[in-house]
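> example.struct
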């Protein structure tokens, strides 16, 4: 739940910065800071002769690309074109469903009726939140570009959650997995960011830098570790269902910062999301 709230507010923080930075530059700056925070973890593990194998390094690099490099380029493009609230809704509505399918196929995880009901109820809540927002949005071709980016975003995260759970079980160290994944994600982002204008960083305001620090320190450094720790303790589909709370946090953050008042359907959808998450979390494996 904590991670869902942290990441839900990240959509709002990103929307504040995306008025100045291109999506790929925001992602690169965010993970340059996060990688610097996690570098001591890599050095410490290396000094203890706790080194990933070459096969593990390849998998960590793939996870970094999936969960950071391509993931945040797609997400921030989606936020820029579709808005923070709609982005949170579209991403979190699809991720648990896709993760449940991926977990069933790749990891052979069970998919019982209670878990299926929880995912369905949560998705219904997401639809309730999204419906009025989509009606009042000024839908143009850029909006659809944003939607397509967010669909790809959800696919990347569902694959990451499923594959990283398997890797964390094998390595047995969520902190080390998070550190290496963050480092590789940053490495892939740097060449991608050369396609945009780094000069825009000079135009950032103080409040926008605070938003970037929130994204880098709280969301990336703290949130990713908590997420990987949760994946080491529970099934991927159960963990991702809690992400249904992200749209709730995103809309609350939008209200606090921009005065956007949540509609009755938003409140009803939030209740359905919470019940759905609880049902899935309590379902038997």
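> example.seq
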């Amino acid at each position: 739940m904590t991670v869902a709230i942290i990441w839900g507010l990240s959509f709002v923080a990103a929307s504040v910065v995306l008025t100045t930075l291109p999506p790929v530059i925001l992602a690169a700056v965010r993970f340059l800071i996060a990688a610097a925070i996690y570098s001591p973890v890599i050095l410490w593990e290396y000094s203890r002769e706790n080194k990933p194998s070459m096969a593990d390094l390849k998998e960590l690099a793939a996870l970094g690309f999936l969960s950071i490099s391509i993931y945040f380029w797609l997400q921030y493009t989606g936020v820029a074109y579709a808005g923070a609230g709609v982005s949170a809704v579209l991403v979190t509505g699809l991720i648990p469903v896709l993760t449940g399918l991926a977990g069933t196929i790749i990891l052979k995880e069970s998919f019982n009726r209670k878990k299926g009901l929880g995912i369905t109820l949560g998705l219904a809540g997401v639809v309730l939140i999204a419906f009025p927002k989509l009606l009042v949005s000024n839908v143009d071709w850029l909006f659809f570009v944003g939607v397509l980016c967010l669909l790809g975003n959800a696919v990347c995260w569902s694959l990451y959650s499923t594959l990283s759970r398997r890797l964390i079980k094998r390595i047995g160290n969520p902190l080390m997995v998070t550190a290496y994944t963050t480092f590789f994600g940053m490495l892939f982002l740097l060449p991608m960011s050369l396609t945009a204008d780094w000069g825009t960083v000079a135009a950032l305001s103080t409040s926008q830098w605070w938003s970037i620090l929130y994204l880098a320190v709280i969301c990336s450094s703290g949130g990713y570790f908590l997420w990987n720790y949760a994946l080491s303790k529970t099934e991927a589909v159960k963990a991702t269902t809690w992400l249904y709370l992200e749209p709730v946090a995103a809309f609350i953050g939008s209200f606090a910062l921009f005065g956007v008042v949540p509609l009755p359907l938003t409140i009803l959808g939030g209740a359905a999301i919470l019940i759905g998450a609880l049902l899935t979390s309590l379902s038997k494996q």
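> remarks
The CA atoms of residues 1 and 242 lie 6 Å apart.
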